[in-house]
Amino acid sequence: MFYELLQLAISNLGRSRTRLLMTSGGVVVGTTAVVLLIGLTNGLQQTAEASIGSGAAITQIDVYPGWNPDPTVPIPRLNDEAIRAMSQMEGVVAVIPTLRLQGGEIAADDYVKYGEILGIDPRYLPYLAVRTQSGEPLTLAAGQGIGGSQFGDNFYDPTAEEWAPITIDPLATPLKLRLYQVDGTIRRVNLALTALLEPTGGYSDMVLYLPLADVKSMNEALSGNDYTDETFVYDQVTIQASSRETVSIVSAALREAGYSAGGMGEYLNSLNGFFSTMRLMLGGVGGVALVVAAFGVANTMMMAILERTREIGIMKAIGATNQEILTLFLMEAGLVGGLGGVVGVVVARLLQDAINGAIQNTPQDGGGISFLPFDASQIGGNLIIVPDELIVFALILATLVGALAGMYPAWRAAQLPPVQALKLE
Questions:
Q1: Predicted confidence band of residue 70 (pLDDT cuts 50, 70, 90)
Q2: How far is residue 345's CA from residue 351's CA, in Å, rounded to a whole number?
Q3: What confidence tens digit (pLDDT) does each residue in 211-223 have?
Q4: What is the per-residue pLDDT across 85-139, written as a single tens digit (0 to 9) for each?
Q5: How many CB atoms are located within 10 Å of the residue 339 CB?
Q6: Residue 181 or 395, more confident
Q7: 3-class DSSP state for residue 222?
Q8: Does residue 208 contact residue 148 with C-beta atoms inside 8 Å?
Q9: Could you tell me the maximum CA-CA distance found in the chain, to the nearest angstrom?
Q10: Could you read off the pLDDT of 344-357 as tens digits, one per residue?
Q11: Count of Cβ atoms closer than 10 Å to residue 70 Cβ
């Protein structure tokens, strides 16, 4: 019976093709808008993610000492005990503590500079989101250092009358650390730079990494005090999460423990949350067009009932039940929505290809497209990305909109008394 009703519904729609096309036109516009607007947010999200990078960087969490305005609440310290507790958290692969050198300057022949110098346990170097650009593989022993990609920049001549930045080759220039100790003496430490890291686009490009034990010893000499278990704390801790999905779970656990958590992984989660909200909002804009189209479908179905009242009476007289009449008109309304959805998806696909093709063929300006506020070349110029599941969702949504819009007219048709319907001329 279902197949016969479907054939009859298709036949009934074919009797008034012009009305069918005009009614489904609203569904076409709404479906096209939903697909294109959601596809646009997909493209923007992938562009933003591509600009952040991938790999270990997006699963790293930077941990800092927390802050609480209530002085009676103890603030957790980044000491060895805290490091052990963090390493036991679910989803944590590695805990990488760093210690900042508290003073001194870097000298390269006659040039000097001040910069960020961090001590790190050499065992944790493989867990950092860095790779060697030049020099030896990632190894770090006593008296050795590893520099960021821009470590050789911003040296200057202290005897010059005007400051001017000087760039050196730190791998080919002898380096020394000048430590101004608490007793007024200057301690000079020879430094062998073993490697420069690839650019990351962050502050680590300027950092000099030294063995943690070396920095700890230098800080003791600078302050004149030896570290104890009670006084020693790390400046920062970097946690490597097991996956991108566990970043938010680990970050929440850290905040609950009283620490501050940030980093690329946290930023990426916030970014994804923003685009999810944006996707709902823009999808809602397209949904408004579908709601408007639903009124058109309902109006068309009501007119069809008025025009086919006698036909409905004849169907009931020869044995059609209210359920079958209801199903027939719901099928017709659903087919109107489904047809509009199919055409809308086709139009959206054509517009997607046209827009993406135009962007890909647009001359590039400095690595990007001049009229766009971002570099779409990072995702191959595909500004609008429409996955297959979005197509399926759009078709189901359009069909449901049509069926729901035809619910009341179908119910009205099913409730028509057959005698009254047959008497109507």
A1: low
A2: 10
A3: 999 999 888 888 8
A4: 998 888 888 898 999 998 888 998 889 998 889 999 888 888 776 778 888 777 7
A5: 20
A6: 395
A7: helix
A8: yes
A9: 114
A10: 999 999 998 888 88
A11: 7
Check residue 76 and report its DSSP letter.
Answer: P
The candidate with the shortest Cα–Cα distance to 64, out of 255, 317, 325, is 255
Residue type, 326: L
Q: Are 275 and 251 in contact (CB under 8 A)?
A: no
Query: What's the CA gap between 316 and 207, in Å, rounded?
Result: 84
Interstrand relation of 144-147 and 186-197 (parallel, antiparallel or unpaired): parallel
Measure the CA angle with vertex 305, ends 299 and 311; round to 5°.
Answer: 160
User: Average pLDDT of 54-76?
Assistant: 71
pLDDT score of 18 more than 90? no
Q: SS3 for 211?
A: strand
Nearest Cα to Cα of residue 43 among 306, 314, 205, 282: 282
Output Rg (C-alpha) for the chain, integer angstroms: 34
Percent of the chain at pLDDT exceeding 70: 85
251 vs 244: CA distance, rounded Å = 12
Query: 377 pLDDT band (50/70/90 cuts)?
Result: low
Q: Are strands 117-120 and 92-100 parallel, antiparallel or unpaired?
A: antiparallel
The residue-averaged pLDDT of 174-185 equals 84
Amino acid at 231: T
Tokens 């470590």 identify what position? 151
Rounded Cα distance between 422 and 399, Å, is: 32
Q: Between the CA of residue 141 and those of 122, 214, 238, what are the distances in Å?
A: 7, 9, 21
Specify the 3-state DSSP secondary structure of 319.
coil
Taking residue 270's Cβ as centre, other Cβ atoms within 10 Å add up to: 12
Distances (CA, A) of 358 to 40, 148, 252, 381: 15, 39, 43, 9
- Angle 17-52/388-405 helices, nearest 10 degrees? 140
**Model confidence, pTM:** 0.60
For residue 243, give the DSSP letter. S
How many CA atoms are closer than 13 Å to the CA of 197, on its beta-carbon side?
25
Residue 54: both structure tokens together: 């991938």
Q: Which residues lie closer than 8 Å to 411 by C-beta, 6 or more apart?
A: 326
Tokens (6 digits) for 215: 């920095």
Beta-bridge partner residues of 132: 197
Q: Which of 293, 102, 277, 251 is nearest to 179 (CA)?
A: 102
Q: What are the φ and ψ backbone dihedral angles of 175, each rounded to 5 degrees?
A: -120, 145
d(CA 300, CA 6): 19
**β 236-241/60-64 pair status:** antiparallel
Model confidence at 71, in pLDDT bands (50, 70, 90)? Answer: low
